[in-house]
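Schema walk-through. Below, the input block comes first and the output block second. Nothing else is stored per chain. Lengths vary across the set, and this one has 296 residues.
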Amino acid sequence: DNQVVLNADVVFDQSKIQQRFAQLERNLKFQNPFGTMSRDVGSFNYQLDRATQRVITLGTAFTVLASANRLIRDIVSSTVAVEKSLTSVNTIFRLTSDNLNKFSSSLFDISRDTATSFEKVAEAAQEFARQGLSVAETQKAVRAALLLSRDANIDVAESVRAITSATNSFNKEALSRLQIVNRLASVDAAFAVSSKDLSEALIRTGSAAADAGVSFNQFIGLVTAAQQISQRGGTVIAGALNTIFTRINRKDTLDALDSLGIAINDVRGQALPTIQVLQNFAVAYAIFAFCIKGGD
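--- output ---
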């Protein structure tokens, strides 16, 4: 009998346990853990994307503000530089406000046409103004200098020196500054010599060439020929020509050439031009070299 009672109690206890589990499951409303985890991850990614977008937007805004700040500083700095340059030029010209505005407007046009900063344009204008040029002449000279600077790929200051040297050295030919620039550009385009080489030669040797009676075109021709043959560059060629020009008309040099049978005077006993003497020397040298090699 005891055995029967025990079994009945065990069965009853199992039933209550099952009921308890069923009730617990209903109370907890048990759901799929993977579905919940997936929804949570999706929500986290969405919030992360929004936060990232806000950071990017904020960074872009800061970049735009920084660029605008730099732009404003550059504009202020450029304005100050322009005013300073115009003031420096006007200390020479003494222009009225209206005339100064017209002059500055023409310089801005040159700056735009030659793609050069206004500061460089004003620097060239100031340099030409110091040479005693009028306002109109200064405008033309500045445009010529900026064109040469662009074509020869040289600094504006060097361009000004080259044009100044050419106009001062060969002033008897009355060449305009624009004519000088155009001739240099034409030779640059037609022969194996650059406007930069020609400009360097003008700066270093233009005066000596003019003193020796060499014309502008003859000087450019000499530099061009030397550059095509030697490929040594304007500076080296200018040094060599300067030595020739400064010594060709010395008495001892002329006596030495005369002793070698090189004609230095015409039939009337007048001194031949330097270029003619150099050509006579070239012919004599070629004959001499041919004889040395054993030619007939």
